[in-house]
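Section 4.2 – Deliverable D4.2 (structural model, holo form)

The reporting period included a commitment to supply a predicted holo structure for the target in complex with S-adenosyl-L-homocysteine. Inputs used:
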Amino acid sequence: MRMRKKKWAEPYLEAHPELVLADPSVYKGKWKELLQCDVLHVEIGMGKGGYIAAMAEQYPEEGWIGIERDRSAAAVAARHIIDQGISRQHLKLIAIEAENMEEWFAPQEIDIIHLNFSDPWPKKKTHKRRLSSERFLGIYRKVLNENGEVRMKTDNKDLFEDSVTCFSNDGWIFDTFSVDYRRIEHPEDAITEYEAKFMEAGQPIYRFTAVKERRAKIRE
Ligand code: SAH
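Output (structure tokens):
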């Protein structure tokens, strides 16, 4: 999401350090302690934060971290969380590019990574920037715990197919798979801002969940 720059964004982000963490590397290895949870979720590319806010409300016993590199979008997310009075004890935001996330999370620290309507980067030359590209899968594999999983949703068939191939080539196992996810109601999973738009337009939502393990066992 590239939003028009909001003048209030920087001062707002800085004014709420208890929600928007300026230096996430401080918490490396200590996130579950900080958020007082057993299950740690991380959404990469949370946009305006509708999903992470709704999920944090629905599952307050779990820990939620939203990452977004667009500082204006992250500020909109922060304001939404604060204005709605959503508890910030188990919900934190990081308004920084995610490719550095290995500096913030210890090996095996995360349980679930959410990729919602990630940028498709349609040109072949830019595929490596995709959040489901080989480079990122290598990072996810390290920071996810043994049973860790990635949950991905998108409207983009090309991105979906390419992601399935990337995950598959990297040895991940698909747990669930849908090419029309919202045909059935899923009250357990919040609808993102982008998702709402595509649903309104009648477009199918593609989704999979993939786990990194069992790979070793299969190859034994
Ligand atoms: N998840 C939201 C927004 C989707 S748009 C929704 O479903 O409504 C994708 C978002 O991912 C954009 O806001 C973009 O800035 C962010 N993004 C893409 N690559 C990123 C990266 N490497 N690090 C952090 N954020 C990223």
